[in-house]
C-alpha cells in the first residue's frame, strides 16, 4: 500500500470514529441532523475524502472507495437508529409536558336565566291569555296625545305633574304608563275585544320603592253590559292565580281621569298574611295598581260609541307584583343587574 493510501485510510478511520461519537451523543434531532450534514452530506467530510481519491494510484482506488462506502453505510445505520431513539424521546417529552389532568374540575359555564321581571310578565300574560286577552304593544316614546290627551288628561291637569313626566320635546314624552296602549288598541280593533299590554314605563322619580323606569301591565276589555262586577271578578281571579289562593283583593275608591268609577287595587300581604309587617307598612295590604270602568269620554276619543259599548281597564306595577311574590326589599335591585340577586329566581 502506498504511503498516501495509508494516510487516507487513517483519515477515513478518524472521520468515522468522530462521526460515530457525534451521532451517539447528539442530544436532539436537530443536532443529529447537523451531524449528518457535516459528515455524510454532499459537502460533508466523507464526500471530501472521496474526492481526495484522485491522489491514489489507479489500482488502489477501488479498494479505498469500497472502504469509505462501507464506513458511510455503517454511519448511516447508526444515524437511523439514533434518529428513532431521539424521536421516541422527544415524543415522550411532548406527552409529559402536555399532560392532561383529567381529575381537574372543568371550567365553569354561566347559564343565562330569565330576568325576574320578564318571568313575572310571562306569568301574568299567560294567566290573562287564558282569559282571552291578547298582547298589544305601543311606542315607548309616546305622543302627548296618546299618553295624556286621549286619556282625558288635558294640558293643565294636575295628573301631569303627579306623573313626573320625562319630556322629549313639546309633543313627545317617555310614556308614563301603559294606558296609552288602550288608545292604540281601541283605534286598531273594533269591539268586542280584550287586550293586555306589558312593558316599560318612565317617571322622573327614584327611591326604595320608586325607580325612573319600571314596568306595568295594562288590561282592557271592551264589550256590552260591562260592569264593576266584571272588573272585580277578573282581578280577583287573576290575583289568586298569580299569588296563590290565600291572597285576598281589596278595592278602594280612587280617581283616574280615564276611568269612571275608579278603584285602587290592594292585595292582602303575602308575607304576614294580613297581620301587618314592614313590607305592608303594618296595614296588612299592599297596593298593586289602578282600575276602573273606561270613561265614556275616552271611548269617544277612540271612536267607540259609549251608548253601545262599555269597558274596564286596569294597570298594575310589575315590580310591585314581583316584590310581593318574592319578598324583594328594594325595587332598584331589579335593574342593578347583580347576578347574585338575579340568579335566585
Ligand atoms: N295608568 C294608571 C297608572 O299608571 C293605572 C290605571 C290603569 C288606572 C288602568 C286605571 C285603569 O297609575
Characterization of this structure:
The strands form 2 sheets. The chain has a 7-stranded mixed beta sheet with strand order 1-4-5-9-8-7-6, with helices on both faces. Strands 2-3 form a two-stranded antiparallel ribbon. 43% of the residues lie in helices and 19% in strands. The protein folds into 2 domains: 3-97; 116-342, BirA Bifunctional Protein, domain 2, CATH 3.30.930. Helix 1 runs antiparallel to helix 2 and helix 1 runs parallel beside helix 4 (61-97). With 345 residues, it is α+β, with helices and mostly antiparallel strands. 31% of the residues are buried. It has helices spanning 3-25, 29-40, 45-51, 61-97, 116-130, 144-147, 159-162, 180-188, 228-243, 296-301, 318-326, 333-336, 339-342; strands at 134-135, 141-143, 172-174, 193-202, 213-223, 249-256, 259-268, 285-294, 310-317. It is rod-shaped. Strand 6 and strand 7 (259-268) form a beta hairpin. The model has no long low-confidence stretch (mean pLDDT 92). It is built from 13 helices and 9 strands. It binds phenylalanine.
Amino acid at each position: 500500500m502506498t504511503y498516501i493510501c495509508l494516510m487516507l485510510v487513517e483519515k477515513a478511520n478518524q472521520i468515522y470514529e468522530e462521526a460515530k461519537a457525534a451521532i451517539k451523543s447528539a442530544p436532539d434531532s436537530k443536532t443529529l441532523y447537523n451531524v449528518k450534514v457535516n459528515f455524510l452530506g454532499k459537502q460533508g467530510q466523507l464526500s471530501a475524502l472521496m474526492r481526495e481519491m484522485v491522489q491514489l494510484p489507479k489500482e488502489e482506488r477501488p479498494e479505498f472507495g469500497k472502504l469509505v462506502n462501507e464506513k458511510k453505510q455503517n454511519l448511516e445505520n447508526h444515524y437511523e437508529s439514533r434518529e428513532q431513539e431521539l424521536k421516541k424521546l422527544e415524543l415522550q417529552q411532548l406527552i409529559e409536558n402536555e399532560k392532561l389532568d383529567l381529575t381537574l374540575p372543568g371550567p365553569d359555564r354561566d347559564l343565562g336565566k330569565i330576568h325576574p321581571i320578564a318571568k313575572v310578565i310571562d306569568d301574568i300574560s299567560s294567566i290573562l291569555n287564558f282569559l282571552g286577552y291578547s298582547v298589544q304593544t305601543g311606542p315607548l316614546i309616546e305622543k302627548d296625545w296618546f299618553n295624556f290627551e286621549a286619556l282625558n288628561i288635558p294640558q293643565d291637569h294636575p295628573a301631569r305633574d303627579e306623573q313626573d313626566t320625562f319630556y322629549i320635546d313639546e309633543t313627545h314624552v317617555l310614556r308614563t304608563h301603559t294606558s296609552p296602549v288602550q288608545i292604540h288598541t281601541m283605534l286598531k280593533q273594533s269591539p268586542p275585544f280584550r287586550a293586555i299590554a306589558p312593558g316599560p314605563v318612565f317617571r322622573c322619580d327614584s327611591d326604595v320603592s320608586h325607580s325612573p323606569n319600571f314596568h306595568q301591565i295594562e288590561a282592557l276589555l271592551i264589550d256590552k253590559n260591562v260592569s264593576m262586577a266584571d272588573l272585580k271578578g277578573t282581578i280577583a281571579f287573576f290575583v289568586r292565580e298569580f299569588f296563590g289562593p290565600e291572597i285576598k283583593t281589596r278595592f278602594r275608591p280612587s280617581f283616574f281621569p280615564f276611568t269612571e268609577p275608579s278603584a285602587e287595587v290592594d292585595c292582602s300581604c303575602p308575607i304576614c298574611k294580613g297581620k301587618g309587617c314592614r313590607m305592608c307598612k303594618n296595614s296588612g295590604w299592599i297596593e298593586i295598581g289602578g282600575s276602573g270602568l273606561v270613561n265614556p269620554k275616552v271611548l269617544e276619543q277612540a271612536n267607540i260609541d259609549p251608548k253601545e259599548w262599555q269597558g274596564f281597564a286596569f294597570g298594575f306595577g310589575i315590580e310591585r307584583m314581583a316584590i310581593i311574590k318574592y319578598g324583594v326589599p328594594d325595587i332598584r335591585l331589579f335593574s342593578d343587574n347583580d347576578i347574585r340577586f338575579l340568579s335566585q329566581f
